[in-house]
């Protein structure tokens, strides 16, 4: 993602939502890295929208824990420690393992068709080598399962975690071998889901998230970006 991609040209009624999506993706892609100070005036210029729209988007991002208040009430992109990332994935394992099991047990054919479509999109973006679009497709994959597991509580809690790990996922995908391994894990998960094997799907989801957790934590331990950003706060 580049700074020129931030500019919004849309129906005024949708400006706030577009601003939110653009800023969320800018954070996920690393355009605005952890610790980066966010200045309203600069964001207005980059997005081409009013300060009101930017403030509304920033408030939502703060509620999602993607940005935080720094010194002198400045806003900065939130810094995620290796310990925080590890805990986030541990909670994801609990929630999403249960979610995929319920998804299979419910047997909603429309939901399964939607998941198959997203799985194909993941393959497509992998072959194209577009990490941002691949990360977004992965988020849609998990959200499709959560939205159709039959539990609003699981969906609401887990969705907040997905938003927080999108940047970590984008980063970990750049690790040697992680993309191919992750794709194999998604394929095994889909095989179990389409076969109607709820226990197998839960096992595959757990293993996938164990591996994803290890990759995400490793990116924070071997790359000093987050530590440097934290020092700026």
UniProtKB/TrEMBL annotation:
Signal peptide: none annotated. It comes from the Bacteria. Pfam families: FCD, GntR. CDD domains: WHTH_GntR (cd07377). InterPro entries: GntR_C, TF_FadR/GntR_C, Tscrpt_reg_HTH_GntR, WH-like_DNA-bd_sf, WH_DNA-bd_sf. GO terms for molecular function: DNA binding; DNA-binding transcription factor activity. Residues 13-80 form the HTH gntR-type domain. Gene3D superfamilies: GntR ligand-binding domain-like, Winged helix-like DNA-binding domain superfamily/Winged helix DNA-binding domain. The keyword Chaperone does not apply. Keywords: DNA-binding, Transcription, Transcription regulation. This is GntR family transcriptional regulator. It comes from Teredinibacter turnerae (strain ATCC 39867 / T7901).
């Amino acid at each position: 993602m580049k700074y020129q991609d931030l500019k919004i040209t849309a129906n005024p009624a949708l400006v706030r939502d577009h601003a939110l999506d653009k800023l969320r993706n800018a954070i996920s892609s690393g355009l605005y890295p952890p610790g980066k100070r966010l200045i309203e005036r600069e964001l207005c210029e980059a997005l081409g929208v009013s300060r009101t729209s930017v403030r509304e988007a920033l408030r939502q991002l703060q509620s999602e824990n993607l940005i935080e208040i720094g010194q002198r009430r400045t806003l900065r992109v939130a810094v995620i420690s290796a310990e925080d990332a590890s805990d986030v994935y541990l909670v994801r394992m609990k929630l999403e393992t249960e979610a995929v099991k319920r998804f299979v047990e419910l047997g909603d054919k429309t939901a399964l068709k939607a998941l198959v479509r997203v799985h194909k999109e993941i393959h497509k973006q992998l072959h194209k080598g577009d990490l941002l679009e691949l990360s977004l497709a992965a988020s849609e994959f998990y959200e499709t399962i959560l939205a159709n597991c039959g539990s609003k509580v699981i969906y609401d809690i887990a969705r907040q975690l997905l938003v927080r790990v999108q940047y970590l996922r984008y980063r970990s995908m750049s690790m040697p071998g992680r993309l191919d391994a992750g794709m194999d894990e998604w394929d095994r998960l889909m095989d179990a889901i389409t076969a109607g094997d709820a226990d197998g799907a839960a096992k595959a989801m757990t293993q996938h998230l164990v591996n994803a957790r290890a990759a995400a934590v490793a990116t924070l331990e071997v790359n000093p970006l987050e530590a440097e950003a934290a020092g700026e706060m």
